[in-house]
Amino acid sequence: MTIQHDIPINISIPHDEINIFIPILQKGFCIKTYSGSSIMEFLLQCGLSEEYIVNNIKTVFLDNKPVDDLINSFIEDDSTLSLSGAMPGLVGAVMRIRSPFQSFRNTISYATTPNKGTTTIRKEAIITLKLFNTVLSDTAILFLRNGIFIDGKTLLSLIKNNKNIYKKWFIQYNDNLLHNSEAITLMEKHHNDLIFVKLVVVN
Questions:
Q1: Residue 79 CA to chain centroid, in angstroms?
Q2: How far apart are CA 112 and CA 57, in angstroms?
Q3: Residue 44: which pLDDT band, with cuts at 50, 70 and 90?
Q4: What was the pLDDT predicted at 45?
């Protein structure tokens, strides 16, 4: 899958319709960053405050491995990062950052690499980010307003499956407003590409 820098889509959407994008934010969307960035560094670059990260992001998975140290865990090209608030139950307690039960998952936890960020050559990277529960509700608008990469197939399905809601949207490409059929044609053409989508949320 490739990023098409010439396919930026701006979508003006009412605030009460943002939930349409929730399944995409949970399933995973793409963000451009740099390989060798720590998770903490990446989240700060995304616009999250250190206070929010420390106090509200309680469960983190990097490439399906639970993370305990956001400063010494590093993102690479094609990494998958999952963020969540505190998950319920014993499993949630075990998977939590710096959990008192982390010894139960030593064999699957992400192995930190202290000082790696100071020696790694930074290169542009694309990662998949997934948001869940309170982190999802807290940060959805932030990420959607900043812009995320969505594959053309997913965006095409979103437009086709929400034709009635589409009447409330304004989709803009190259400073031109697209009709429903024009948006569908554009997505079909770039079915296998990553498309940069930025939301303008209106009341």
A1: 12
A2: 18
A3: very high
A4: 96
Give the model's confidence band at 160: pLDDT under 50 very low, under 70 low, under 90 confident, else very high: confident
Predicted pLDDT at 16: 84
How far is 98 from 185, CA to CA, in rounded Å? 48
Q: Are 20 and 142 in contact (CB under 8 A)?
A: no
Who contacts 142 (Cβ-Cβ below 8 Å, separation ≥6)?
46, 47, 48
Q: In the block, which residue shows the tokens 């605030």?
A: 15
Distance from C-alpha of 34 to C-alpha of 9, rounded to nearest angstrom: 23
% helix, strand, coil for the chain, step of 5: 40, 30, 30
The one-letter amino acid at 116: K
Can you tell me whether residue 69 is helix, strand or coil? coil
DSSP strands (E only) in the chain:
2-14, 29-34, 59-62, 65-66, 80-84, 124-131, 148-151, 170-173, 176-178, 193-202
Q: What is the pTM of this model?
A: 0.86
Length of the chain: 203
